[in-house]
Amino acid sequence: MSPPATTPPRRADARRNVAAILDAAQECLIRDPEATVAQIAQAAGVGRVTLYGHFATRTELVDAVFERVTAQADTMLAATDVSGDPMAALARLVTANWQVVHRFRAVLAAAERELPPARVRGHNDRHLRRLTALLARGRAEGAFRTDLPEQWLATTAYTLMHAAAHECAAGRLDPVGAGVALTATLTAAFAPPPPPGAPGGHGT
Amino acid sequence: MSPPATTPPRRADARRNVAAILDAAQECLIRDPEATVAQIAQAAGVGRVTLYGHFATRTELVDAVFERVTAQADTMLAATDVSGDPMAALARLVTANWQVVHRFRAVLAAAERELPPARVRGHNDRHLRRLTALLARGRAEGAFRTDLPEQWLATTAYTLMHAAAHECAAGRLDPVGAGVALTATLTAAFAPPPPPGAPGGHGT
DNA sequence: CCGATCTCAAACAGCCGTGTTCGAGTTATG
DNA sequence: CATAACTCGAACACGGCTGTTTGAGATCGG
């Protein structure tokens, strides 16, 4: 039989190595979703064979990292309060969610690339649902616009989070400014459009 | 020596094949940015060797397709009128630009993946500049918000165009609805935020 | 301190993609 | 129609990645 991949290793150093591998894999996949098993092993300070001793397959490793990351993400999001004024709740949720995207974007990209779609959906939908729930409530209360599909609003939010993360990674935006820009943009984009007879300049 | 890759082929059928290859490559790369040379050759109804006779390298082929696509994109965008009321001009530019993204997103992804970054920047910046120019003018005229970096507004616009294209490709949005949603969202997101003492319900 | 557990380098097999060579066959074109 | 231009399938070399085997050695843990 192969060494225990599902059963936790018996010896302390083995368990330590598994942890090191997961750490290294997460870090490597964040830098490059196509990172090689060899690269990950080296980053973990471990032989390639040892890695295969703990994770039979590259896919299995990615899956483990994905599991780990979603757990961390859940922790970061669980604390967010989505009650009260929808617009304020949106700002809170977006701020928290953006941090998650900022950190784990690349890992999710790797997961989406080589894990069965259903696997990713399951974990992802949970986060999405928190947003759509807030969206639905806010629309019912008249705090958010209802002239566009809910689906599109959710897409807008997530897309802009990814964009902010990307800009941040490229050094064109600092994390603080990104948070500000995100909430300002989404607040404006989600507010109900003023009726035709609004005050102010109207053009011709 | 190698067959004429830079010099156009002398014979009619050869020129026809080059065209077929470019067509097939464009189509294949749109479906999958990692499409194989073999797949492209087959789609073009041509032997792999023949393809290599006209394009010494996969990179060279991608470059040619990229060249072609940017030319088409330029044509589609050149006609857009960006004068007049900034908000209306934005709507026009976004609608036109979105069509481009909708069609060629995947090819650009392929190009970004395996062409020297400078190559892509050059052609891309031209389109970007049209938007930023409009942005600058609109901000100066008070039609667009100035409380966020211009860079961020541009990113927002392009990101949402890509998102709309993606939603469209996934069948969750029809092209018409996408255009509407895009302009509605960007119009709201780019408008100057109302000063603190605005009318309407304010909560608590 | 001894044995079970774990590590590891080297080397191998298999797959897949790129790019090249060869030799024979086809087709345009003057 | 004859020749230069072009096409094509098969086969090869090359490199990279995955996953496996082997056998010797290090290390934990009772």
Automatic annotation (TrEMBL), chains A, B:
- Quote the DNA-binding region ranges, renumbered to this chain: 36-55
What InterPro entries does its record include? Homeodomain-like_sf, HTH-type_TetR-like_transc_reg, HTH_TetR, Tet_transcr_reg_TetR-rel_C_sf
Q: Which UniProt keywords apply?
A: DNA-binding, Transcription, Transcription regulation
PROSITE patterns attached to this UniProt entry: HTH_TETR_2
Instruction: Give start and end of each HTH tetR-type domain.
Output: 15-73
What superkingdom does the record give? Answer: Bacteria
> What positions belong to coiled-coil segments?
none
* Protein name (record): TetR/AcrR family transcriptional regulator
